[in-house]
Each structure stands twice: as structure tokens, then as C-alpha cells.
Automatic annotation (TrEMBL):
Keywords: Membrane, Transmembrane, Transmembrane helix. Belongs to the laat-1 family. The keyword Calcium does not apply. The chain crosses the membrane at residues 7-29, 49-65, 85-104, 116-137. Its main location: membrane. This is LAAT1 protein. GO terms for cellular component: lysosomal membrane. Gene3D superfamilies: 1.20.1280.290. GO terms for molecular function: L-lysine transmembrane transporter activity. It is found in: Membrane. It is a multi-pass membrane protein. Pfam families: PQ-loop.
Length: 138
């Protein structure tokens, strides 16, 4: 059990670092074009917008990965002693309201909803994903 969880945490870190390197390489390669197009959208993304998009995914990977050390520690000790429940409660409320704010300001036109979700996907995954992991921590 403990060895498997430690292997999972190590694998998550390796995957996170690999994903970051791949995303940064893609950003550099696309920087030579000065623009790229997200499928289904006629508006080209320039390098600045694309770098924000890449940073969103990198942030999502690290944000989701930030909960695994606490989960591992709790599992290893078989206890949640010393965990600040107020910190996790406030983080859960913050992630929930942030994710909901993104969903509530979604455009009403169906044709723009897919593009909106695609552009906000890293932040939605980050906020709702960490909310899901915080349930296991608490």
C-alpha cells in the first residue's frame, strides 16, 4: 500500500515535469509561427494568448499535484492529525466558488459555449480537481 502510493506520487511528479517540458517546447515551436488556431475557433491565438493558455495547464498540473503529498502523508500515518481543517475548508469553498464563477459567466449562445469551455478548461480542471482531492484530504 504505502510503496504503491509513493510510486504513484513519484510518477505524478515525473509526468508533471514531462508535461511542462512538452508544453514549453510546443510554445517555443509555435512562437515561430506567431499564431496558432484552436480547433473550432476562427480567432487565431497569438504567442501571448498561447503562453497564457500553456501557463494555465502547467498551473493546473502543479495545483492538482500539490495535494498528493498531504494525501500520501495522511495515508502513511493512517491519520489526519495535524491537518488544518480550516485551511482545507476555505480552500474548498474558494475552489468551488471560483469554478462556479467560470461556469456561471459562460456565454448563453451555444456556439460560443464550446470555445469558452475550451479556453477555461485548465482553470476548471484545477479548481474542481483540487476540490475533489480536498474531499479525500479532509
Amino acid at each position: 500500500g504505502s510503496k504503491n502510493l509513493k510510486t504513484l506520487c513519484t510518477a505524478w511528479i515525473v509526468v508533471s515535469i514531462t508535461l511542462c517540458v512538452i508544453l514549453l517546447c510546443q510554445l517555443l515551436l509555435r512562437g515561430h509561427d506567431q499564431s496558432t488556431v484552436i480547433e473550432g475557433n476562427n480567432h487565431p491565438l497569438d504567442v501571448v494568448e498561447m503562453s497564457g493558455f500553456v501557463c494555465g495547464y502547467v498551473s493546473c498540473v502543479f495545483y492538482l499535484g500539490s495535494r498528493f503529498p498531504q494525501l500520501y502523508k495522511n495515508f502513511q500515518r493512517r491519520s489526519t492529525e495535524g491537518t488544518s481543517y480550516l485551511l482545507f475548508a476555505l480552500a474548498m469553498m474558494g475552489n468551488c466558488t471560483y469554478g462556479l464563477s467560470l461556469l456561471l459567466k459562460m456565454p448563453s449562445t451555444a456556439s460560443f459555449q464550446a470555445t469558452y469551455l475550451l479556453h477555461h478548461l485548465p482553470w476548471l480542471l484545477g479548481s474542481f480537481g483540487v476540490l475533489f482531492l480536498d474531499i479525500f484530504v479532509s
